[in-house]
Design a protein that fits this description.
The chain starts with a strand and ends in a 7-residue tail after the last strand. The chain has helices at 14-27, 55-69, 82-88, 90-95, 111-118, 131-138, 167-170, 179-191, 218-225, 246-254, 271-277, 283-296, 315-327, 354-378, and strands at residues 4-10, 32-34, 43-48, 77-81, 101-103, 124-126, 149-153, 155-156, 175-176, 196-200, 208-211, 214-217, 233-237, 261-263, 301-303, 305-308, 334-337, 383-391, 398-401, 407-411, 420-428, 433-437. The protein is an alpha/beta fold. Strands 2-1-3-4-5-6 form a six-stranded parallel sheet, with helices on both faces. A five-stranded mixed β-barrel has the order 18-19-20-22-21. It has a three-stranded parallel sheet with strand order 7-10-13, with helices on both faces. Bound molecules: S-adenosylmethionine, iron/sulfur cluster and FE3-S4 cluster (F3S). FE3-S4 cluster (F3S) binds at residues 12-13, 15-16, 49-51, 82-83, 166-167, 170-171, 202.
Length: 444
């Protein structure tokens, strides 16, 4: 079979990263080989994200860049995948003739068919929500990801319809993959060398799969993965406060491999705003979960997502969010100004003053970053366990993560890749820890 190069550029969340890998696993059957040279590919895939800002315009801008790259060369097959593809569908083909294929996140099993049809110059758009067929198809396509830390999607879509969010429209209804399908894929990843698996879902802790009258939950998956001796660490993201059930919370008392770091988005510290957002949980619900987890394991640390300047957010609402951050010292969070998404309920609401929103974002980030820097500083002169992922390209240093997912950059040796090593932390900044290998000290 004649081989051809494919370049895949991924935007957005971890699920898009997972999807890009699966798209690649699929197209290798057509002779495509991944390249890192974006200017020399027969096929160019943009895997897009629609969550915030001018997502659609960014895609057209990217295509403008690709056009320039290939000005004097044969044009690549231009594929737009991901959440913008789903939201914009055939409009994209009309607006930008350079695009050949538009494919939504629940139709990736059809990508080879579309690429074959493209040989006859047929432009294609495929945006069906066919999640069951997609995963059934991928059940027979080996996951060739050979990273030390691998993603594995267990659940997709969302039925919660927070008023600000585009995900239920771009990823479709909530769907949980069959338990055995997930385990088979996890075994492939472990065989390929994965030492850490992050289970993914837009509402990963809503995972629920029923077979023979038994319900399998996220806690069952974690318990099962715990049995693989080659696997060192288990993580999951993104969880929702409404689905933080006791079976999952209890995993933190018995499963050492489950990392003591919980990314649990709250969005706002004001019950009034949470209600306006249709979150269907209160600040108190969140604090109860926090307390339960801390009681089970004091080491657990939290991170969150915040939306600032949601329509109707008052100074008092914003202060409530600041107060929450004073109570819960999140160690690493995402905060963004509300961005109206086409088709969502809140896109029709009146925005708050832009400068006020910017000022609030600045204030909240000062607080969040202060906590983050403080937490990182607390690791200085201690020894931490680091799962070594790779050698860094441009420096003679190694890259890994501590249990709280913070990047650790350190002097090490090639043999340590894929192992958990003890690193003495000498320095830190807001995002990373820096140090060198230490063999005979107790880990913090
Ligand atoms: N399912 C997760 C939850 O409910 O917490 C969140 C998944 S969403 C892909 C990731 C984050 O994007 C959200 O937690 C939210 O903070 C942010 N987000 C979503 N829509 C947004 C919008 N319209 N404007 C700003 N941020 C938004
Ligand atoms: Fe979006 Fe998460 Fe809300 Fe679903 S639960 S609508 S993914 S923010
Ligand atoms: Fe973006 Fe879609 Fe993920 S909108 S955040 S790529 S689910």
């Amino acid at each position: 079979m004649k081989t051809k190069n494919i370049f895949i550029k991924t935007f957005g969340c971890q699920m898009n990263e997972y999807d890009s890998q699966r798209i690649y696993d699929n197209v290798t059957n057509l002779g495509f080989i991944k390249t890192s040279d974006q200017a020399n590919a027969e096929c160019y895939v943009l895997n897009t994200c629609h969550i915030r800002d001018k997502a659609k315009e960014k895609v057209y801008h990217e295509i403008g860049r690709v056009k320039k790259l290939y000005r004097d060369k044969k044009k690549p097959i231009m594929v737009v995948a991901g959440c913008v593809a789903q939201a914009e569908n055939e409009e994209m083909l009309k607006r930008e003739p350079y695009i050949d294929i538009v494919i939504g996140p629940q139709a990736y099993h059809k990508i080879n068919e579309l690429l074959k049809q493209h040989e006859s110059n047929i432009k294609q758009e495929e945006i069906e929500f066919d999640t069951i067929s997609k995963f059934r198809h991928f059940d027979n396509v080996k996951n060739n990801n050979n990273k030390i830390s691998a993603f594995l999607t267990i659940q997709e879509g969302c039925d919660k319809f927070c008023h600000f969010c585009v995900v239920p429209y771009t990823r479709g209804p909530e769907y949980s993959r069959p338990f055995n399908q997930i385990i088979t894929e996890a075994e492939q990843l472990i065989k390929n060398g994965a030492k850490e698996i992050t289970l993914l879902g837009q509402n990963v802790n809503a995972y629920s799969y029923r077979e023979n009258l038994k319900e399998f939950r996220l806690s069952d998956l974690i318990n099962h993965l715990n049995q693989y001796s080659e696997l060192e660490r288990i993580r999951y993201t993104t969880s929702h406060p409404r689905d933080m059930t006791d079976d999952l919370i209890n995993c933190y008392s018995s499963i050492q491999k489950l990392m003591p770091f919980v990314h649990l988005p709250i969005q706002s510290g004001s019950d009034r705003v949470l209600e306006l957002m249709n979150r269907k949980h209160t600040v108190d619900d969140y604090i109860k979960i926090y307390k339960k987890l801390k009681k089970i394991n004091r080491e657990i640390e939290f991170s969150s997502d915040f939306i600032i300047g949601y329509p109707g957010e008052t100074t008092k609402d914003f202060e409530d969010t600041l107060n929450l951050i004073n109570k819960i010292k999140f160690i690493n969070s995402f905060s963004f100004i509300f961005s109206p998404r086409p088709g969502t309920r809140s896109s029709k609401l009146e925005m708050i003053d832009k400068n006020t929103a910017k000022e609030r974002l600045k204030l909240i980030q000062e607080k969040l970053f202060y906590n983050q820097i403080k937490k990182n500083k607390s690791f200085e002169n201690t020894v931490v366990d680091v799962l070594v992922e790779n050698k860094m390209e441009k420096q003679n240093k190694f890259f890994g993560r501590n249990k709280y997912i913070s990047p650790v950059i350190f002097d090490g040796i090639d043999e340590n890749i894929g192992k958990i090593v003890k690193v003495k932390i000498e320095n830190s900044n807001q995002n990373s820890l820096f140090g060198s290998l230490k063999k005979k000290m107790k880990a913090a």
